[in-house]
Design goal:
The protein has a domain at 126-242: Ribosomal protein L1/L10, domain II (Rossmann fold). The protein contains eight helices and seven strands; from the N terminus they run ααααβββαβαβααββ. Helices cover 31% and strands 15% of the residues. One of its GO terms (cellular component) is ribonucleoprotein complex.
């Protein structure tokens, strides 16, 4: 058995106990402490800043060498990084070894490089992108706003879930109609203003590519596209494939 070493837990405890007075006074001298507190209050913010500077966070520097065992303290070593091809290969190997579902999603975290920009962080936003290889058969429900019968027919032929004009506003406000995305042609936009607060970021706009004349193109983007969001100031977290 190991014998406990003196001062292991409470460093310098024996010295503090030796210095403590044998008899405690019945009336503690509170006044000097109050006076000291008042004096410190004047430059309290300055004092706090100085105290913060004094408190240095102990930093663990990563070791240069790689671990020789498969069990080790991760913060002592630099986190290994791999190129995309090798990383995906490792995921496939792990999937076989762990007997996990082979159709599970592969996720990616993209950190935007803001070094050359004046703003070092991005305001949170969402957007859609068409990937070169689709990895899911699921499609989103898209509503098309148009009062032109010819455009409405084109929208139906290209897979629109709902097509209509101002008559849809009431149903959307009352949650009778719920879809994933909303697109519109420019001619109907002045009549859709009552929906601005309801739809918020899904309100049709040219910035989001949900407002325009090319109905088939808009429908393909929002039916088959991948929606991603920028969060945590500059990070995109999304899925890109299946294992």
């Amino acid at each position: 058995a190991m014998a406990p070493r003196r001062g292991w837990v409470f460093t310098g405890l024996d010295r503090r106990l030796a210095a403590a007075p044998a008899v405690v006074s019945a009336s503690p001298a509170a006044r000097p402490y109050a006076a000291a507190a008042k004096t410190a209050k004047k430059g309290s913010q300055k004092t706090k800043r100085e105290e913060t500077k004094k408190k240095q966070v102990t930093r663990r520097w990563p070791l240069m060498s790689k671990p020789v065992d498969d069990v080790y303290l991760t913060w002592y070593y630099e986190r290994p990084s791999y190129d995309v091809e090798k990383a995906v290969g490792m995921l496939k190997k792990f999937q076989e070894l762990d007997f996990t579902y082979p159709r599970q999603y592969v996720y990616i975290n993209v950190f935007l490089d803001m070094e050359l920009q004046k703003k070092k962080k991005v305001d949170p936003f969402a957007s859609n992108v068409l990937l070169p290889y689709r990895f899911t058969d699921e499609t989103n429900k898209v509503l098309v706003f148009t009062e032109n019968e010819q455009e409405a027919e084109i929208a139906r032929e290209n897979g629109a879930a709902v097509v209509g004009g101002v008559e849809l506003i009431k149903w959307i406000l009352e949650d009778e109609i719920q879809v994933d995305f909303y697109v519109a042609v420019p001619a109907i936009m002045p009549k859709l203003i009552p929906l601005r607060n309801k739809l918020r970021r899904k309100y049709p706009s040219t910035k989001r590519n949900s407002l325009g004349h090319d109905i088939p193109k808009m429908l393909q983007l929002f039916r088959e596209g991948l929606e991603y969001t920028v969060e945590d100031e500059r990070v995109i977290k999304t899925r890109i494939a299946r294992v």
